[in-house]
């Protein structure tokens, strides 16, 4: 581990968290749609919303569990119609990410939310991909796309979605699994994930957000995913904790999401520190920042304050984010060198 002066005062921790380069590996790009942009796009596209204004929409963001959020999240996405809408949404996210020193991002997107409304796969992927290309050029943020299957829908529909995406295979790095977890175990998607694996796509899945540790086991052993999104319920299963640590399976943890969806009653009770202290490759991410009240840096600073983590945890989390990313080895090394340089700066 990187050595830091024991003298780094806690007062400098927020500045370190802000300044350190980091990767974001768990961001649903539709979850970055701020109410202001939802209303602007609704007007541009002539879509009517069941909320009078931005304040009325924002005041509906009082969630009790995952499903209560998903209902509003899918309604918000209904304003996305044209390629430029997808571009504008992602571009707004990249500007916020860059301000938090996110230097690499792997974006989830939910094509079925859009194709079900008659928006083509081409429109979705081309808009998002163009934003990724421009983020690298204009903001120095490298980015790639992970296409998610909605797990409340059937495996047959996932296969159809994969088929529609194949012409754009080169614009997608991997496949994920999201939406309502409980009652929709990973093994429901065994065959389509096997096909994606044959196609050389990288694999991840949400598991152990609200669902039981068994879903993490089957995501690993049946779907053969490389990272687990959320995974915080692993703490209930000692054998699973050992497996995750031994195989260096990254967990893309989203503290403010867990707080807002009542996975933990308050941030002080979040288990991120226990996961790290048990040797798991945890990372910090924002999930759906427009809905959960914070982008990357808010997730870091609020969680560090609530659970009492220090600069060593900060280094581990940032380093884990690069190591768990789907960047090539040379790229990972370059980012880790930048991380080390940043910490060097804080030694003085
Ligand atoms: N969990 C499952 N599905 C989602 C989430 C989440 O946190 N965010 C957007 N879709
Ligand atoms: Zn998520």
Largest beta sheet: strand ordering? 1-2-3-4-5-6-7-8
Helix content: 40-55%
CATH superfamily: Metal-dependent hydrolases
Oligomeric state of shown chains: single chain
CATH architectural designation? Alpha-Beta Barrel
What is the global morphology?
A: globular
What ligands are attached or bound here?
hypoxanthine, zinc ion
> In what range is the share of β-strand residues?
5-15%
What would you note in describing this structure?
With 348 residues, this protein is of the alpha/beta class. The protein has one domain (22-341): Alpha-Beta Barrel (TIM Barrel). Helices cover 50% and strands 14% of the residues. The chain has helices spanning 13-19, 35-45, 54-59, 66-76, 83-99, 111-115, 121-139, 155-165, 190-198, 213-221, 238-246, 255-260, 272-277, 289-292, 296-307, 311-323, 329-347; strands spanning 22-28, 102-109, 142-150, 174-178, 202-207, 227-230, 250-253, 281-284. Strand 5 (202-207), helix 10 (213-221) and strand 6 (227-230) form a beta-alpha-beta unit. The longest helix is centred in the middle third of the chain and has 19 residues, at 121-139. The mean pLDDT is 97. Bound molecules: hypoxanthine (HPA) and zinc ion. The site of hypoxanthine (HPA) has 11 residues, from helix 4.
